[in-house]
């Protein structure tokens, strides 16, 4: 593994784990995906964590993800703003996705730990990440660890971060903490932020607190719909009124969080774009019922929420 | 989906979720895999549930599994004795594996539910299985549901079984219950066995009880090493001394279960075959330490355990 002499800036700020649009037959709709990515980059997102949990990435095959990344790059989106999710249960899958991302110039990759086997030792997880990094074998690779114990069940401990930082200081450069537990994010910041480790909160609920404690931004589900306001807080977090702006973000997120998050995000986009097909999810997820979607739209409207400039592609 | 007019007998008895041998570089060792499959079929196994949890199947890519199944069939193993694991998080992966298995003549497929997203509704899981079955679109397909909540976290409820039996009566034909909870297996038997549903216990600990309550056998980790004794109990379960034979199985399994199961199985095979490479596991799993492996071998020897006829292939 050659040492990195990489002086690219790190990706910072607000990233959206972009939801993936499907057609009625459950195929990926590349055209709507590209359009949504463009809307996000034009409306407050500094980067896109495509193929995250909220992207239903684990409901997509490796080949589907490679082709979708290519479609995004072919459409002219800057790979320097992309942090695709590339973690997988099988090392071979993680290597294929990560190698394709780094070869395509992506700013980094967001790596889940292998999540099928439970109660695995940190030693085994360290060997997993080490195998993937060794096999990709590219000094441009930047790995962001993805800690999301409520879903993956397999987490990223402080000991594991320390070991990976020691073994791969130029490659393992950051984390997304989706534990929902601020005390964990704080412990990661306290241990590693001073050494340059890039800590993203996994929710905009913690954006301001994370920035005030040495974090670099957030990668947040609600960034799919509320990126203008989230981006505004990121741009002005040291200015007066930041706490009020944070409270408004938390309020909007709470309206979404009354429902399963991915179907709720898609229902909101379907509503504001006037494109009902956006509501489609892949099994095992289930779309909101019409009553739920109407109730969500009503509560967002009462809150004054909008998605300016969002429209069905081609309309 | 054409109706099945299928009169093939169902696979019954003792199935081993075959452990997968890896070379030092973590590549699959097809030759040792075929040899172990042959030993199992010659020593008490009625069938082979290749690509199960104990096979580290979720640490293998789809392509690796397809090629390994082909190697087994090319070696002359009867596909009528195979029940490969084909469940995956992505529908596309489950379809590719299941279609290949059914086209190859396999007796059935053992399907995990999609296991990344947690707390998903039964409706979504039913749609997942329905999509896979519809896309494979082959009347020979026989699906065995794989209920293993300690690992997958996402389980197969009685309501889900009832719904799938109603929607796909000729296709969804059985289950492996690895809950470790006999009351769950009993509830499944009581609800569905009389209707022809094929219930395998997920451990030989429950083999005798399962058979006495209308079950058809077991698919058991320890079948990888203790298949002669497990097969003997299956063949003689209605004869005198069956409870003693069950107690002996449970005793042997308890020696293995003092350690993480997959590394323990591989350590035992390495010991009895004289082939130390068998101990290799893929990350995130970790091989037993030498001290653990020696302690396991000692306790098995004290218990009078052997693996007759097991040898390094080509020796």
Please give a structural write-up:
Two copies of one chain form a homodimer. Chain A has 315 residues and is of the alpha/beta class. Chain A is built from twelve helices and seven strands. Chain A has helices at residues 30-42, 62-74, 91-103, 122-136, 149-152, 158-167, 182-192, 207-212, 223-235, 242-256, 261-273, 290-302; strands spanning 13-16, 47-48, 109-111, 143-147, 172-177, 198-201, 217-219. Chain A has a seven-stranded parallel β-sheet with strand order 2-1-7-6-5-4-3. In chain A, helix 2 (62-74) packs parallel to helix 3 (91-103) and helix 9 runs antiparallel to helix 10 (242-256). The radius of gyration of chain A is 18 Å and the shape is globular. Chain A binds chain B through residues 26, 53, 58-64, 89-93, 96, 113-118, 120-121, 123-125, 127-128, 130-131, 150-154, 282-286, and chain B through 26, 53, 58-64, 89-93, 96, 113-118, 120-121, 123-125, 127-128, 130-131, 150-154, 282-286.
What is the CATH class name of chain A? Alpha Beta
CATH fold group of chain A: TIM Barrel
Fraction of residues in H or I helices of chain A: 40-55%
Largest interface: A-B, 40 and 40 residues
What order do the SSEs of chain A take from the amino end to the carboxyl end, as H and E?
EHEHHEHEHHEHEHEHHHH
Q: Report the portion of residues of chain A in β strands.
A: 5-15%
Largest sheet of chain A: 7 strands, parallel
- Name the quaternary structure: homodimer
Please, what is the CATH homologous superfamily of chain A?
Aldolase class I
Rounded radius of gyration of chain A (Å): 18 Å
How many extended strands of chain A? 7
Instruction: Report the structural category of chain A.
Output: alpha/beta
